[in-house]
Amino acid sequence: MYKEIRLSGTGGQGLILAGLILAEAAGVHDGHEVIQTQSYGPEARGGASRAEVIVSDDVIDYPKVTFPDVVLVMSQQACDRYGRLVKPGGIVLVDDTNVSSIPSVEGASVVTLPITEIARHDVGRQVVANVVALGALVGVTDVVTPEAMEKAILSRVPRGTEELNMKAFNVGLEKGREARARHESP
Q1: 158 exposed, middle or buried (CB, 10 Å; 0-12, 13-18, 19+)?
Q2: 2 within 8 A of 114, measured Cβ to Cβ
Q3: Cα Rg for the chain, rounded, in angstroms?
Q4: What is the DSSP letter of 6?
Q5: CA-to-CA dists, residue 146 to 1, 20, 35, 152, 168, angstroms
Q6: Has residue 41 got a pLDDT over 90?
Q7: Given pLDDT bands bounded at 50, 70 and 90, which one contains residue 34?
Q8: Residue 176 falls within a domain, yes or no?
Q9: How far apart are CA 87 and CA 50, in angstroms?
Q10: Are 101 and 138 in contact (CB under 8 A)?
């Protein structure tokens, strides 16, 4: 296995933390080779934010995502910048709560879910949209095991928020699996 994953949105959406959680799940708990990088604009909130994770069964020779297999976009700005940059056969996971102009990507699947809306209404707190997104990502791609993701989430979230974050992950996982089933059925 070799997967390049890009998580993108705006500052304040928790995507850097999501990238760290994903990398920990893949490397520490599932035993894969992993590299995680991140970048964000100078603004504390509202600027561009991106976390990238490479997951492999072999040694990773180059530490940067060049042509991702999976792209998560959680803002229109991120979608405009990264939404079409995915490998043929790849997946673009779009938070259509925040993205109104959704790209069509030749040779790739575009999966839309109202991630932020799910966090707000199904979980009760918008602040966990990043963890809902991780659940959806696992549900759509199986890039890591749910058990590994649960362990990584519990090791990274603030004390006292474990139950909320586990609910967010499980709701996202269910919604991601439902979305995958819709895309796989003829």
Answers
A1: exposed
A2: no
A3: 15
A4: E
A5: 17, 16, 19, 10, 13
A6: no
A7: very high
A8: no
A9: 18
A10: no
What DSSP letter does each residue of 98-152 carry, written as one string? T--SPPP-TTSEEEEE-HHHHIIIIIS-GGGHHHHHHHHHHHHH-SS-HHHHHHH
Say what the pTM is: 0.92
| 128-145 mean pLDDT | 97
Is residue 151 domain-resident? yes
The dihedral region occupied by 12, where left means phi > 0, alpha psi between -120 and 50, and beta the remainder, is left
CA atoms within 13 A on the CB side of 20: 10
Asked, for residue 146, whether it belongs to a domain, the answer is yes
Residue 93 sits in a domain whose CATH number is 3.40.920.10
Number of domains, the chain: 1
- Reported as type and span, the H/E element at residue 184 is helix 162-184
| Residue reference for tokens 């749910």 | 146
Residue 80 lies in a domain: yes
Nearest residue to 133 via CA among 82, 70, 84: 70
Tokens for 52, please give them: 């990238």
For residue 35, give both structure tokens. 């590299």
CB contact at 8 A, 85 and 94:
no
- Pull the structure tokens for residue 181: 């089933």
